[in-house]
Specification:
It is built from eleven helices and eight strands. It is of the alpha/beta class and 249 residues long. It has one domain: TIM Barrel. It has an eight-stranded parallel β-barrel, surrounded by five helices. Bound molecules: 1,3-dihydroxyacetonephosphate.
Length: 249
């Protein structure tokens, strides 16, 4: 039995049209009984579907995939955390490696986004993770600790922030770190959170993300200090997403 309530979150990335509502409905229908009693479930659809998903969400949480740091203004194409909350979101992913890479987001910008999430009453899911080159150079722990240190806001609490460790080279590749490497990283993140936030550091949920599938979920989610998963591809189908979430049962 884990001391923190597990969270299994699905990041749909740039996937999904209105026809995908039927798939989301199957996720909502499958979230019941023992699964609901034990595990939080969250789906982060593209912004175009957020309000429609929120309308039929049952007890499944809805999250955005990114937010702007400002509450409103002249920022074409961006979405404020307040707008996500208004559309029915309870969380938002910040600092995903695809944003850090495609949009050159810095730790400072990610931190401002996490602060915006708190301002809007959203839980921030703060992503960190090393590249393949960084791991091969033996720098994974230092890089990830540096990202955490630079992008987690002062005053963050376990109620308003979740950390997701997503090694960049494991995302969408079918590759995963060894169980020992996941355990080492999560325990380093836990130690960093305790060093910075004292006893509160024990309360933050730490998710693992990167090629989580039904057939590896049980082993990964059993690791100490892995409090859930951030799932990409396998979250697009109700069957595989629910199978991952049931790994905790
Ligand atoms: O980036 C991810 C979730 O945010 C992981 O994606 P995959 O599960 O498709 O590897």
């Amino acid at each position: 039995m884990k001391m923190r309530r597990p969270l299994v979150a699905g990041n749909w990335k740039m996937n999904g049209l209105t026809a995908s509502l039927a798939e989301f409905d199957r996720i909502v229908e499958g979230y019941d009984g023992a699964l609901k009693a034990k595990t939080d479930l969250l789906v982060c659809p593209p912004a175009t579907l957020l309000a429609a998903f929120a309308a039929g969400r049952g007890d499944v949480g809805i999250g955005g995939q990114d937010c702007h740091a400002k509450p409103f203004g002249a920022h074409t194409g961006d979405i404020a955390a307040e707008m996500l909350a208004d559309a029915g979101a309870s969380a938002v992913i910040v600092g995903h490696s695809e944003r850090r890479q495609d949009h050159r987001e810095s730790n400072g910008q990610v931190r401002a986004k996490a602060e915006a999430a708190r301002r809007a009453g959203l839980v921030a899911i703060l992503c960190v993770g090393e590249t393949r080159a960084e791991r091969e150079a033996g720098q994974a722990l230092d890089v990830v600790r540096g990202q955490l240190e630079g992008s987690i806001p002062d005053g963050a609490t376990a109620a308003d922030l979740v950390v997701a460790y997503e090694p960049v080279w494991a995302i969408g590749t079918g590759l995963t770190p060894t169980i020992e490497d996941i355990a080492e990283m999560h325990s380093a993140l836990r130690a960093a959170l305790k060093a910075r936030f004292g006893a509160e550091g024990d309360g933050f949920r730490l998710l693992y993300g990167g090629s989580v599938k039904p057939d590896n979920a049980t082993e990964i989610l059993a690791v100490a200090d892995v409090d859930g998963a951030l799932v990409g591809g396998a979250s697009l189908k109700a069957e595989s997403f629910l199978a991952i979430a049931r790994a905790y049962l």
